[in-house]
Queue: 3 jobs
Job 1
Amino acid sequence: MKRIQIVGSIGSGKTSLGKKLSKKMGIPHFELDTLFWLPGWKIRPFDEIFELAYVQADKPAWIICGNFSFLKHVTLDEADTIVWLDYPFWVCFWQTLKRAISNIVKQKKCCNGNQETFGRLFFSKNSILLWMIRTFKRRNKRYAFLIKDPMYKDKTFVRLQSHKETAQWFKSIKV
């Protein structure tokens, strides 16, 4: 495992696992959200996103967290291991809500200095909760298909369906 992509629903814990794995393995960790979002919740131009993604994916070892399907040929294709956090809907929803409220209360910045607000969380068409609800089933279908796709037969897939499975898998990794 030298090039690991962690995928899953919003709120599944991709970033948290990526950070822990990075520390344990001594491999740099990178979040695709930082490529996508500019300050003020503006979307970075796609040519810049691709350029930055190629720079990351060209490194000899990495842990990339994120799901941008338009970057699949850049990140997933270059990964040797794909870790899918396939948690139940209610777990991801609860973790998304809890994280967003905590970030709002603590005024924690994310994605290049952006901040969630109660208005954005509960009253905006750009709510992360709405996005999580809209994309949950589609992402699960995509990764269930990917596991069976002959194009990815040389990849190691790790499908984790609970926090307990994730903890056991993490503990089993020998460095």
Job 2
Amino acid sequence: MSYLSSAAWIAHDLGLATTIGGTLFGQSALHPALNERLDDDQERKLVADAAWRKFSWMNLAAHGVFAATWFAGRGMLSGREVSGSARVMTRIKDGLVVASLATGIASIVVGRILGKKVREREQNVSVRGGEEDASIERLRKVVGTLGKINLIATAGVGALTTGLSMEASKSLPFSIVSRRLP
């Protein structure tokens, strides 16, 4: 395998690691720590919004990198180079990459809308309560659900990446063809 293919594989794995790691950190460490350390609900929301806004660009880039490298590499092979089980895993990975990309983008977009509402609420303190809070809570639930679906899809991509790598190492035709990849 060439340096370009190796670099693409490394970029693919780093994109996956960034996406999975960032989401896990946010859901399992950042939010629980904010809940433990900050008594003011509005302050927690503002800090979480600031953190996710900073990470969302990196998360978006990471999604783009692992999806682009997957589909670029995928377009260079016919599928005949690998076993039947690897072809099935490849199709499943295709679907999970699309699901991860779609839920990742949706989570960022809805998260941005949520963050804007939280910041607007902070600027207009007299609006506290009622319909505004219900809207924010609905958006928070949507973002949380999208984040969980994204985490599952992206972890699936990571698992299939490993499985496909193991399958490829057993395939003589793939070994021959992969040497000719850029």
Job 3
Amino acid sequence: MFGTIVIDLNPNVAQIGPVLITWHGIFSVIGIVAAARVGQMLLQRDGIAPDRVYDMAVWMVVAGLIGARLLFVWENYQQFEGNLIRIVQINEGGISQWGGIFGALIGGYAWCRHSGVDFRKILDAAGPANALGFAIGRIGDVINGEHHAIPTNLPWGVQYVNEQTLGEVGLTVHPEVAYELVFNLLVFVAAIATYPVFKRRLPTGVTGLIWLSVYATGRFFLSFLREDSLIFGLRQAQWASLLMIAVSIVAIVVWTRWSGRRTPSEPQQESGQEPAAV
């Protein structure tokens, strides 16, 4: 037990009537706001006004929360049998990050179609913005311990002991969500540092897909440390990671080839249009 990190933190902050305020919910909101702010700064360079970015953010947040919760409920339906009202009690924790990613992308795409904005610009900003949002959100997961990891005897293993914890009481486990937190911070720093160069040299949309794929690759390998159920030998998050990588590769190839076929005399594409091949 030498070196074990004991986490004796109550995941709940306060109860206001029927509403339970948790650290998970607080850091999720902070992460969403931080991601929106980063996205606003990056998209402003592409000529998209801040008020339009925040309008789009509402679409992405709503769709992302719905996707995140629905995928979590689908994965853990046993927890909601006989108590369906818990499905909407998202403040208590229980969201799937991949459900949030795909939901937010769908919401962003719908807003772009509605507003006449090139969705690929949104993707470019989403790479670094989401990385920061994910990192902040994971702070709440470290506190509540809801994402169960495999046991370890490493000196930085964690043990949850609070009576309200969602963690694995009595076990010393990998701080897997803390690994994700650090990994996402590294992705954010690298994405911000390389953003100007990538934007100049790569077709629109490719920059964002690169960083979403980097995140997916890291999540794929870190998920081996989770206790999630297996589907055909892999965890759900790993299948979602592979899907993101595959879609990104196809889109990068298509957009790069389409960009290479354009001649210098061709007019620039209107912001609301997309390549015919997509």
